[in-house]
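PRC-barrel domain containing protein structure dump, as promised
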Amino acid sequence: MNQQEQDLASNNESGHNQEGTNANWPVKVLTATSIIGDPIYNLQGEHIGKIKDIMVDLEGGCISYVILEYGGFLGMGGKLFAFPFKLIQLDQVNRRFTLDIDKELLNKEPGFDKSHWPATNSHGYAAGNSSSWGAFMGPNTGG
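structure tokens r here:
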């Protein structure tokens, strides 16, 4: 165990929180409410939306997928997309999330109908394979 890990373990045992600018570095756990509404950028540094919601797998006890709200203005006219949580990475330095996706793909894909969220048992999305896009989001996709 290195010195930083020893310090963290000692702090955990003491019941006292760390202080300073990097008190929670590296980030390992966040509350759902602190993630919802956070911005998402692509790897080119373009803002592509925000985390609209988080879908929890009640049987497995983990996050199943994240809803990305793309486009629109003041919550109107945007599209919703579902992505497996594992595809979204935390950029700790810039305090935002990143997703490896081209903005043009989001422009041309329909997203899913806001009144019919994705089926929770359809998980065919494969990173980089737009032909599987709708399969992940389930049978209720479309705009």
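DSSP finds four helices and six strands in the chain.
lmk if u need the other ones
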